[in-house]
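Appendix B. Worked example

We walk through a single record from start to finish. Start with the input: the chain for TetR family transcriptional regulator, Aeromicrobium chenweiae, length 207.
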Amino acid sequence: MSDQPAESPAPRRGRPGYDQETVLRRAIEVFNRQGYDGTSMGDLAKELGLTKSAIYHHVPSKEHLLSAALDEALDGLTTAVDSAAAAAPGTSAYARLRTVVQESVEILVQHLPAVTLLLRVHGNSEVELAALKRRRAIDEKLSALVQAAVDEGALRADIPPDLISRLLFGMVNSLVEWYRPGGPVDADVLAASIATLAFDGLALHQP
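Next comes the structure step. The output line below is what the pipeline stores for this chain.
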């Protein structure tokens, strides 16, 4: 038996290895930069340093990546709204609505690229239509929560509840246009500031 150490095998050459999370992150970056409709599987392969055929070893289709990205954004927002609906008995609608606004800001910051992509879909595919349907369901729950806050006398009643909801979450969604993680504004400060600005302007009195 030889005392010489076994030689290490030569490194294998071939396509780079990527896990699903890395592929998804890079795909979202390209979709946001070029637009989903303007991005091909060839573009994604180039971004990852793969051949056009090799990328199919990582993902089955462009639509699969879009669906995963939109679900990431929608799952977070759905959880925030559903958690507000399941708040402890006695929690006011006003308090639940304010919490949803703050948590929505936090979710947007944590999943900024995915939420940005969500806000840019136009319903040009079955995947996008399904995402828009989920967004409408979230919007309906938010409008109902606003109405409940109006009914309990915490919010002014001279502005339609659905308009209040659109204005509130339009302000939250506008963050995708300028907020950059790692910048001078801390995410927690941002969430609290938006809630303070919105609700101190809407409240009839301090609960």
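Two observations about the output. Confidence is low (pLDDT under 50) at residues 1-15. The helical segments are 20-34, 41-48, 62-85, 93-110, 112-118, 126-151, 161-173, 187-202.
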